[in-house]
Design a protein that fits this description.
- By secondary structure, the chain is of the alpha+beta class.
- The chain has 3 domains: about 40-100 and about 155-305, Metalloenzyme, LuxS/M16 peptidase-like (Cytochrome Bc1 Complex, Chain A, domain 1, 2-Layer Sandwich), CATH 3.30.830; about 100-150; about 320-500, Metalloenzyme, LuxS/M16 peptidase-like (Cytochrome Bc1 Complex, Chain A, domain 1, 2-Layer Sandwich), CATH 3.30.830.10.
- It is built from 19 helices and 11 strands.
- The protein has a 6-stranded mixed sheet, sandwiched between helices.
Length: about 500
């Protein structure tokens, strides 16, 4: 649910990885160039960008459909709708998931009417009539039950799985929504036909039933989770203007009041051809595959590519602190505003992430966990890609240790980062780990398909994926010091912490 970073990619065999770690840079570059040369791309007449990468290792293809829309595109009143539509995209179409669509359509209309009447009474709040609410609730449930008679639950998944589909899933982040799965390579046309159907003629059946599921997700992941509550409150404090201030799952009151019609309007605006990218990796011949894909996916209406978010988060004017009292395990998160993924210093932030908080050799882990026993865990992560995000240092305090002690230690390590140049050997080790992480995970067709689509949309070209190693290699000790001095300053920081309740 939280925004993923651009993930390292997967596709080289293990022995190649080991060899690459010991061979010179030019060989690595040549390997990436060879892969680039095999990529075939085309923009369909309706604006859909198609990226194909043949990789005939096994008779399997993996597909990713990337919608350039996430929760950052929402506004007050419909928070969570990007995630809601992700669920709806698995509910089928006019021909998949229904026993009789003509009758079902009329039944769905009655459900919507019943919900609108119930919502209108709920919106009276304290002035609402309890008796009227009960009456409307019963009418709403009855309409839902009648509509359910025409629905075939999970039919889309069953259709695909019977044809050998695996990994059928999706995710929504702040910046994108991605649908993905794998199929035997002779089922390419099945995928193209189904994908065209569900993004041309989706039926948002079982809408309010699924809303109940999403409400429970929020209760479990946020409202019943001290860390979830802390993350939500800290984001709200760190951002006062930009939509990143709301979690992807949205506010409970919005989830409860969003209508099927609002979800349909969301689909019409953001799931048009000009806002979609599809990527297929695996056992395919691009010359044969492209006409099949174009035949089916060209049916999706072109639409107009929506504008990006224009709201810019203003500079923070001073330290912000959020404290949640809870008898649960204490937790500390120190969040600093950082640039977006296309900023020239993005690779430097990647290096700092590894240096400070990735793995057992990172500075925070060695000091806070191994040496001083201040924390059970400590590290770094980043949030946000398309727009300026947050660089987060975190620590899980050890027994009898406090968030304050961990905060002091982290601040001292940050100061060290600013004042002491990284020794050449340590910087080299960080770069090696970072590149190994990148290369080691190049083994999955599905991961490669998702990442090609992500780089295409987030950076402007899938080719930038293959420049990542060069960017990491170019980072200097001076770059690290400069960025640390710019970013890790008091007034740019929002601190969130879980503390034990004070005894009265």
């Amino acid at each position: 649910m939280a925004s993923p970073k651009l993930k390292p990619l997967h596709f080289l065999p293990f022995l190649t990885v080991i060899a690459l770690l010991f061979l010179a840079g030019p060989i690595l570059a040549a390997t990436f160039e060879d892969i680039e040369d095999n990529v075939v791309e085309k923009v369909l007449p309706n604006g859909i960008k198609v990226i194909l990468l043949p990789r005939p290792v096994a008779p399997v293809i993996s597909m990713a459909t990337y919608a350039n829309v996430g929760s950052s595109d929402e506004h007050t009143g419909i928070t969570g709708i990007a995630h809601i539509f992700e669920h709806m995209a698995f509910k089928g179409t006019e021909s998949i998931g229904t026993k009789d669509h003509k009758k079902e359509k009329e039944a769905i209309r009655k459900v919507d009417e019943a919900f609108q009447a119930l919502k209108a009474e709920r919106n009276k709040r304290n002035l609402a009539s309890p008796e009227k609410l009960e009456e409307l609730e019963q009418a709403f449930k009855k309409a839902q039950n009648e509509a359910a008679e025409y629905a075939i639950s999970n039919h889309l998944g069953e259709v695909l799985e019977k044809q050998g589909a695996s990994g059928l899933n999706a995710f929504t982040s702040f910046d994108q929504t991605v649908y993905h799965y794998s199929l035997p390579s002779n089922k390419l046309e099945l995928w193209a036909a189904v994908e065209s159907d569900r993004f041309t003629h989706p039926v948002l059946r079982e809408f309010y039933k699924e809303i109940n599921v999403i409400q429970e997700e929020r209760r479990m992941g946020i409202e019943s989770s001290p860390n979830g509550k802390l993350f939500e409150e800290t984001l709200a404090a760190a951002y006062k203007a930009h939509p990143y201030h709301v979690l992807v799952i949205g506010h409970m009151s919005d989830i409860q009041s969003i209508t099927r019609e609002e979800a349909r309007e969301w689909f019409k605006k953001y799931y048009c051809g000009s806002n979609l990218t599809v990527c297929v990796v695996g056992d395919l011949d691009p010359k044969k595959a492209m006409p099949i894909i174009e035949k089916h996916l060209s049916e999706i209406p072109a639409g107009e590519r929506p504008l990006p978010v224009e709201t810019v988060e203003p500079d923070q004017l001073g330290l912000k602190r959020v404290m949640i009292e809870d008898p649960a395990q204490p937790f500390l998160a120190m969040c600093y505003h950082k640039p977006d993924v296309n900023h020239p210093d993005n690779a430097t932030y990647e290096v700092i992430t590894t240096l400070m908080g990735q793995g057992r050799t990172s500075r925070l882990y060695k000091r806070l966990v191994k040496e001083e026993k201040l924390a059970l865990a400590a590290g770094c992560m980043a949030l946000g890609e398309k727009y300026p995000g947050l660089f987060i240092h975190f620590a899980l305090p050890n027994k009898d240790k406090t968030t304050a002690e961990n905060e002091t230690a982290i601040l001292e390590e940050i100061e060290r980062l600013k004042t002491e140049p990284i020794p050449d050997e340590e910087l080299r080790g960080v770069k090696t780990r970072k590149k190994a992480e990148f290369i080691n995970s190049l083994d999955s067709n599905l991961g490669l398909a998702i990442n090609l689509a992500m780089y295409e949309n987030l950076t402007g070209s899938w080719r930038n994926m293959f420049r990542q190693v060069d960017r990491i290699e170019s980072v200097t000790a001076e770059d690290v010091q400069r960025v640390a001095k710019q970013c890790f300053v008091k007034k740019n920081c929002t601190i969130g912490e879980i503390v034990e309740p004070e005894s009265e």
